[in-house]
Amino acid sequence: MAMRQTPLTCSGHTRPVVDLAFSGITPYGYFLISACKDGKPMLRQGDTGDWIGTFLGHKGAVWGATLNTDATKAATAAADFTAKVWDAVSGDEVLTLAHKHIVKSVSFTQDSNCLLTGGNDKVLRIYDLSKPEAAPLEIPGHTSAIKKALWCNGDQQILSAAEDKTIRLWDRTSMEAVKTLSFDTSVSSMEYVADGEILVITYGKTIAFYNALSLDLIKTVEAPASINSASLHPEKDFFVAGGDDFKLYKYDYSTKEELESYKGHFGPVHCVRFSPDGELYASGSEDGTLRLWQTAVGKTYGLWKCVLPEDLGAENSEQLYTTAPEIKA
Amino acid sequence: MTTPVSVLRLPRGPDPNSRGFDPSSPRFIALCAASIPTSAASAADPARLQEEQRARSVLRESFLRCLLSMSNKRVQFHMYEKVKVEATFGASDIDVLNFQVSDLQTPIGVQKEALIRCQDVISYCFEV
């Protein structure tokens, strides 16, 4: 019997969700942080979507959010011209890093000692979190607002995407651009997959995969609609994408074949990411919600329960309920 | 004919009364340092640690009693950007993030009911 995907809706935000990130796998599971235009980023349990806490302090829309690998720290980038570092266990604000313009992107190094920021003032900044009063290292070069900045290659290099329609690869030590990719249109999203050194980029209706070290093109895939974000499965057998037609698309990475598409969101999808174990992916939308989707539809995982046809009449199915595709928390 | 996948329950949403980060959760208990860490000298010496802990309790208790005694009194708040306002103190939220006040006197008029964001406050004073 074929199973239909039941997305889990996480509500709580009151404005569009523009960015989301997963932590690594910790002894307490894995976690998810969402950046929202309502200025209140939220931390959730990654496998269930259960709300854990809200980081309160920003005075403007939060454009970027990230967690360190063990989910003990969070960082956020906001329209109030600051990036903030938070204790992700207590929810307390630990550091405010003042910038000269809207901050769009934040990224921790693997050891959580340094924070990379990028935003509308076109300059990449590297902060040493053990010396927060010290001035950050600044890397100018982009000629328009930076949308996304990520560490790569064992934190020895930096990848940045900007409104100037370029993606640049920078060397951390020399602080110089070693490679530049130019596009006809602004890149809408960028994801770095450390294991395998793959860069996932979206622009227009295209999802493109590059070698993150050489910036050589691996392959491109065309979607039916304008795509805002894509994510590659940790085992690199699938990738998912979402964009302006409100749908989530799932593709086979090797064959580039579109496998499935899912309706659910009531607005454009701004961000989508696979969980660190690949069992689910989360999407954030203009409609103010996050939705969790199963990679293997029908599998028992998190809040999803595999129910065999013969169990449906039995006593133990009382606690379960089959739902219409649209459910809200 | 496809059947939708069953779920055990829906994801839990935010608690309207708090910012979360439950201090009784296993992760919090295991990982959270005190908000003001123990001084290095006290960490080394158990007797000093006891004394420091007692001092913390005293300070905390007197802060809470201070909040209680402010109830319904006129309080002057000194805030950033050289802002000085006066209001009748109502209550504080559990995390001391906001103060609920009434009849807040501002340069542009009196606000009947307002929330003052604690991080914006430098100091406040009132008559006991």
UniProtKB/TrEMBL annotation, chain A:
GO terms for biological process: negative regulation of transforming growth factor beta receptor signaling pathway; spliceosomal snRNP assembly. It holds the Pfam family WD40. SMART domains: WD40. WD repeats lie at residues 55-96, 96-137, 139-180, 262-294. InterPro entries: WD40/YVTN_repeat-like_dom_sf (IPR015943), WD40_PAC1 (IPR020472), WD40_repeat_dom_sf (IPR036322), WD40_rpt (IPR001680). The keyword Flavoprotein does not apply. Coiled coil: none annotated. Keywords: mRNA processing, mRNA splicing, Repeat, WD repeat. One of its GO terms (cellular component) is SMN complex. One of its GO terms (molecular function) is RNA binding. Belongs to the WD repeat STRAP family. This is Serine-threonine kinase receptor-associated protein. It comes from Myripristis murdjan (pinecone soldierfish). The gene is STRAP.
TrEMBL record, chain B:
This is Gem (nuclear organelle) associated protein 7. Gene3D superfamilies: 2.30.30.100. It comes from Myripristis murdjan. Residues 1-23 are annotated as: Disordered. Pfam families: Gemin7. Residues 1-25 form the SUZ-C domain. InterPro entries: SMN_gemin7, SUZ-C. GO terms for biological process: spliceosomal snRNP assembly. GO terms for cellular component: SMN-Sm protein complex.
